[in-house]
Design goal:
Elements: H1 2-14, H2 23-44, H3 46-54, E1 57-62, E2 75-82, E3 88-94, E4 102-108, H4 111-120, H5 127-132, E5 136-137, E6 143-149, E7 153-157, E8 161-166, H6 168-171
Antiparallel strand pairs: 1-2, 1-4, 2-3, 3-8, 4-6, 5-8, 6-7
Helix pairs in contact: 2-3
Length: 174
Amino acid sequence: MKVFFCLVLSVMLFACSSDVAQPTHQRADLRNLRDKVVINIEQNNPDLWHKINRSKGYAVFSNGATQTITPPNGLGVGVIHNNVNGENHYLIMESDLLNSNSQIVVLFAKKKQLERFVEYAKIIQYKTDIEKHPIYDFSQIDVESYYLIDDQYIEQVDLESAKFWQSKQLSSFD
């Protein structure tokens, strides 16, 4: 069933015919979501905010609806931001941790970790590729992950594994 939802979400993200959900609007919406999460962290957990700013990069994933995207439970959309060069990559995440109104923040302390993760989260265009795409094993790299619920509760979590992939439509320009 998740594969079906993955396909539906992918199609939504790849679609460019809708006036409501143009890729530029979706990218702006995801960056806005990221910024709201980071501002919330700054206000509620300044130590974590400083870690985000000192990291080489960070990712914010959310299952909550945005103005242009509404992912189903278990799937989230997000953006990984490179603090060194300012690049953004827009991703889809499949994880049991993501449910209604939750966010996951992943911090990358080293540039190599960030690059390795972005390389893993390749662009997937076909349903069969989603099924074959391997689960990412976070034990291979040293990252810090945090789970946020309803913009209030922040807890460090052990993000052991999940699937991530990039949206070609969204990652083409930024």
